[in-house]
Task: structure prediction
Amino acid sequence: MKPPNRRSSVLLAFGTLLLMSISHQESEWTAPPREARKKSPIPANKANLENGKGLYSAHCLSCHGSTGVGNGPAAKDLEKHPGDLTSKQIQSQKDGALFWKISTGRAPMTAFKDTLSATERWQIVQYVRSLGIPPIVTLVPEFASPDSVRTALGALFDAYDALSASLVEGDEKASNKLVPGVKSAVEKLRALPVDKLPKEFTLAWEGAVKSSESSLEALEAAESLKARRSAFEATSRNVEGLWRRFGHANKAPLHVFKLANGKLWVQADGKPRSPYPKPSSESAEIHRIAPAQPRKSGHKPPGPTPEIKRGDRQ
Result:
């Protein structure tokens, strides 16, 4: 058998590269830049999200599955996997790109530009975005604290929340008047009679209260709104640790938010209001803190209870 000549080898290599290129083009699905740059004309609200969910259930769920991971009942019969809509590969694409793909389709996916209105397709995009948001966890405090501790921690939250509201408004004078209230609430924590509680509890409590006291020194010393906001962030981290470990007296969970730059704060509700210069739109809720259940009469507080409950998807 004659060995292949140079020309045949070149043609063979070229053909292999051509097939690889075609295969790559078939597997890669990229929206035209002009289409990808399009912005959604509909607001991100509950009504559009609910409509998007209904449309997704009717037109997309059979292949992509209820959670978007590509495990719908019809997926097993497809030649190509429908794709995981929760993946970074999908979620990193711009809204315009997702809208274009929903509109034009690609086998085996149907093109929806002739069957769904533009508004309906944008609503599906909004719902697909929600599939990529990790569920918010509600943390059960580490210790089951006595009522006196939870009540004092509830008073601390009230003082903290008032100070946070003044920073949201950028009201320096109001914030000056509210800092002493936070300090007083922390001092009352120090005065609580916890020495007869289990050693594990008292050691953790002493350390957490001491950290909060330390961060308050900078909050008191702040002479400008900028300095106070900076000190407030350190205070937020410490008091969030108190509530996360020992609970609070609110009836509902507390909501903990964080900006992209790492600064966090705590609120009583789920609508973010940033006490920092960065807008609330750049924040994300990272978890919630459930109130600890009051201990039953005659029972000592147990040790750590690292239970974690799933919250509702936002």
